[in-house]
Amino acid sequence: MRGRQTLGGGWSPLDGGVDTGARLDTNHAVSASALRMRGVASDRGRADSGRWGGERVRRSPGGSVVKQERAGRTRQAVLLAAADTFAGAGFEAASLVDISRRAGVSKGALYFHFVSKQALADGVRAAAGREIGAAALRALRTEDRAVQGLIDFSYELARLLREDVVVRAGVRLGRQGLRPTDGCVGPGAAWRSLAAVVQRLLERAERAGELRPGADRRACAELLTAVAAGQVLLAAEEPGRPAPEAVRRLWEAALPALVGPDDCAGYRV
Question: Could you read off the pLDDT of 41-70 as tens digits, one per residue?
C-alpha cells in the first residue's frame, strides 16, 4: 500500500510495544514545519490564502479537487493555530474563538473539521505522535552504526521539542493529564515506545560488537530512557529545552559507559 510504512514484526513506534497489526502512515504526519511548507503559517500562525504552498492544483469540471485541497489547507491551518495556542496557554485556557482567529478562518469552518476543543486537542496530539514516530522510524532504519543512530535520534527528538510547536503542544497536553479520546494515538504512546527504540538500537549495537565488554544493555537502555523522559518533562515547562549543548553533555558522560573510553572518538556527539 503506497504511503504506508511498517517495521519488521509489525512494531509501530506509536504503540506501547509489539502490535502485530500496527502501521504508521508517515506521509500524513503533520508537524509545524510541514504546515509551514504548505503555506498555512505566518509569524502569527495565520493561513496564507495567497499561496498554494507549492502544491499542484488539479482542476476538474466540478472543482471538487480544488475544494478538497482548500479544505485540507484549512484543516492544517486550524491544527497549527491550535498547537500554538495549546503550547502557550494550555488546554483549559485555550479558546476556540482565539484559535479560529489565529488560523484566519471562521468558527464555522473550524467546527466543520473539529467538532469540539477535545477533538482539536486529539488532532494535535495525533499529529505530534506521528512526527515522533517518523523520527523513530528514521532512527531504526539508519545505515550508520547503531550507537550513532541512537545519538542522532536523541538530537532529533531534542530539536522537535525545541522547534516543532505541534510536538511541544502534544507534550504539554499530555503533561496536563488530558486523555485522548478512543482511537486517538497521541505522543504519550509514542514516548512510551521510546524505550523500545532504545532497546532495539542497543540490541543491534550489542550484536555488532559496539558495546564495551561487560556493559549491561538493559541497564543502559533504562538509564537513557529515563534521561530522555526527564528532558521531555523539562521541555514541557521551559521553551527552548533541551538545548543541543545539554544533549552533547549527556553523551559525553554516557558514551564511555556504552562503548568504552577508547572508542568514543569514533562517534559524533
Answer: 333 333 333 322 333 344 455 567 777 888
